[in-house]
Amino acid sequence: MSGTPALPVHLRPPDRPGLVRLLEGIAVAGVLLLLAGVPVWWFMHGTAAGWTERHVVEVSVPADATCRTGPPPGRPVTCAATWAAYDGGEPVTGEVSNRYGGEEPRPGTTLDAREVRPAGSDGSGGLAHTGYQVVLLRWALAAPYLAAGGGVLLLGAAVGLVRHDPRWRSPRTDLPRPG
To answer: Which of the residues in the chain have pLDDT under 50?
Structure first.
């Protein structure tokens, strides 16, 4: 019994407490990077990548176009519109929006925009934005890297914690068996 530790496994102190505190901080940073990257990657990265391709089009919003306000951030206006494809192809029907900045589309106007999502094979379903705020654009473009970096940090910290902290290494063996 002399080799038996005095404390149960889940209460033993870590082998290297300073390293464990650092690894816990890295794990929290990894989770925060994941939370900052994944939703933005999911919702904004595609349009941000489309914006950087610089497919400038002249959008016509018909006078009888239907417009709606939203979704956030802010109170953007999105209207049904038509434009000639940036490569000089068939006319495109879709939506134009100032969701991330730029000039507000209004029925009966013509404005410059960038095609951020091309239309389908039938020429419908395209999306154009009139502007993109610099901060949102950079965040959306960096989102995949934030998410990947956060995942690597979290995984690396978890491996380090399992290796250097007995509380992460083994299950609680001091509990009585059920039954």
So the answer is: 1-2
